[in-house]
C-alpha cells in the first residue's frame, strides 16, 4: 500500500501516486500533500517527466463541488444477500459514511502512515465507523420524539421513510442500499410501523434451528421455549422488508404475513400500491387498511408468484402504503436465487459431508455461497 511515507525519507514536499488500491469514491489522509491518479494519467505524467528538462507539479488545495453522483453506495461497503438468513433482506439502510469530518484521538497518527507524529483533534474518515454513529443518532432522535417506541418500531420508521436510491447507479440494487438513504426527519412521523415483540424473535430463532437450550442463551430467560426446531421460512417475522430466496430452477412462490401499527393520525385509511417486474405477480390482501385510533394494529398478507427462475441476480420492487395525508410507508421487495439443496439457509446433508447440526448451517451456507450476485 502506498502511504506517502517514502517521500518524507527523501525529504520531499509532496507526492503524486498511482495505485489501483485506491478508489475514486473515497479519500485517505496522507502525511504530505498528495494526490492519487489513475493508471492512464500515470502514463501521461511519466511521459511529461521524461520529455521535460525541469518537470514541475502543483498540488492545489481541494475544492468542494456538487457531486452529481450522490447519493451512491461506496465501493468498499458490504453487499447482500444475507448469507445466514436469506429471507431477511440485508443491508437494511444506507447512511453517510464517506469523507466525514469527525473527532480524532490526538495520540493517534492522523494519516495512513503509522509513523506520522502529528496530532489533530479532527480528521476525515470513511467507513462503517461513520455510518454507524449517523444511524445511531437518527435512532436516538426518533426515540426522543417517541420514548415508548420499541427498537423494532424505531428501526421500521427509519427504513420505511428512507429516501429511495437510484437503481441505475447500483448493479446490486437493494443488496447495495437496502431500504434507501436514511431520512431522520421523515422517520419521526412514519404513519405506520412494523413492530416486533420478543415472541416474534423467539419464533424466528426456533425456525432458524435454535433449540430451547441455545435459545435461552440468547434471551437470558428460562421461560423461553422452542416448541419446534423444524427449519422454516422467515416469512412471518414482522420485518419492514420482503425478501424471497428461491432455489435455483424453482418457481417463484411465497406468502408473507405482516402487521402494522398506526402511529400517525387517529382516523386514517391507507391504500397499498405495488411495483414488481412483469414476471412476478404480487398481491396484497387486504389492499386497504382503515384505522380508528393510535396504536391500532392491522394484519395483511403479501403473495408473490412467478415462473421458474435460474441464475437470476435480483428482481426488486416495493410495497407502499399511502394515506393521502403525506404518509408513505415503503417496503422493498426482492426476489433472487439461492443454490440448490438449501432449506431456509441450512444446507441439506447432500450438500456437504461435514456434520450439519443446527449451528453449522449458517457458516456452511456462507462458505458455499449464494447465487444472485452481479
Automatic annotation (TrEMBL):
Which protein are we looking at? Peptidase S8/S53 domain-containing protein
GO terms for molecular function, please? serine-type endopeptidase activity
* Membership in a protein family: Belongs to the peptidase S8 family.
Q: Name the GO terms of the biological process aspect.
A: proteolysis
Annotated ranges, domain Subtilisin-like protease fibronectin type-III:
236-335
InterPro entries attached to this UniProt entry: Peptidase_S8/S53_dom, Peptidase_S8/S53_dom_sf, Peptidase_S8_Ser-AS, SBT, Subtilisin-like_FN3
Q: Name one GO cellular component term.
A: extracellular region
**Limits of the Peptidase S8/S53 domain:** 69-178
- Protein origin, superkingdom: Eukaryota
Keywords attached to this entry = Hydrolase, Protease, Serine protease, Signal
Q: Which Gene3D superfamilies match?
A: 2.60.40.2310, Peptidase S8/S53 domain
Record PROSITE patterns: SUBTILASE, SUBTILASE_SER
| Location of this chain's protein in the cell | Secreted
Amino acid at each position: 500500500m502506498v502511504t506517502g511515507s517514502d517521500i518524507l525519507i527523501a525529504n520531499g514536499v509532496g507526492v503524486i501516486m498511482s495505485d489501483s488500491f485506491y478508489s475514486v469514491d473515497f479519500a485517505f489522509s496522507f502525511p504530505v500533500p498528495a494526490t492519487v491518479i489513475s493508471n492512464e494519467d500515470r502514463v501521461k505524467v511519466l511521459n511529461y517527466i521524461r520529455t521535460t528538462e525541469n518537470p514541475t507539479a502543483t498540488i492545489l488545495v481541494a475544492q468542494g463541488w456538487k457531486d452529481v453522483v450522490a447519493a451512491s453506495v461506496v465501493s468498499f461497503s458490504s453487499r447482500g444477500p444475507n448469507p445466514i438468513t436469506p429471507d431477511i433482506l440485508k443491508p437494511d439502510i444506507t447512511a453517510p459514511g464517506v469523507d466525514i469530518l469527525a473527532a480524532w484521538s490526538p495520540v493517534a497518527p492522523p494519516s495512513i502512515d503509522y509513523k506520522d507524529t502529528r496530532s489533530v483533534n479532527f480528521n476525515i474518515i470513511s467507513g462503517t465507523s461513520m455510518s454507524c454513529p449517523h444511524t445511531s443518532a437518527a435512532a436516538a432522535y426518533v426515540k426522543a420524539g417517541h420514548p415508548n417506541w420499541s427498537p423494532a418500531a424505531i428501526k421500521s420508521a427509519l427504513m420505511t421513510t428512507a429516501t429511495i436510491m437510484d437503481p441505475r447507479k447500483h448493479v446490486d440494487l437493494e443488496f447495495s442500499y437496502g431500504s434507501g438513504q436514511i431520512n431522520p426527519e421523515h422517520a419521526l412521523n412514519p404513519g405506520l410501523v412494523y413492530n416486533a415483540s420478543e415472541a416474534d424473535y423467539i419464533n424466528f430463532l426456533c425456525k432458524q434451528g435454535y433449540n430451547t437450550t441455545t435459545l435461552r442463551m440468547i434471551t437470558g430467560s428460562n421461560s423461553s421455549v422452542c416448541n419446534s426446531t423444524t427449519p422454516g421460512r422467515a416469512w412471518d417475522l414482522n420485518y419492514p422488508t420482503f425478501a424471497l430466496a428461491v432455489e435455483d430452477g424453482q418457481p417463484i412462490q411465497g406468502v408473507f404475513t405482516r402487521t402494522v401499527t398506526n402511529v400517525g393520525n387517529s382516523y386514517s385509511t391507507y391504500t397499498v400500491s405495488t411495483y414488481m417486474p412483469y414476471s412476478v405477480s404480487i398481491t396484497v390482501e387486504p389492499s386497504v387498511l382503515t384505522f380508528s385510533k393510535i396504536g391500532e394494529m392491522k394484519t395483511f398478507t403479501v403473495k408473490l408468484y412467478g415462473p421458474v427462475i435460474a441464475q437470476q441476480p435480483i428482481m426488486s420492487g416495493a410495497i407502499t402504503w399511502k394515506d393521502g395525508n403525506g404518509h408513505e410507508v415503503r417496503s422493498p421487495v426482492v426476489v433472487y436465487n439461492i443454490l440448490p439443496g438449501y432449506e431456509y439457509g441450512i444446507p441439506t446433508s447432500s450438500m456437504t459431508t461435514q456434520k450439519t447440526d443446527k449451528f453449522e448451517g449458517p457458516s456452511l451456507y456462507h462458505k458455499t455461497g449464494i447465487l444472485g450476485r452481479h
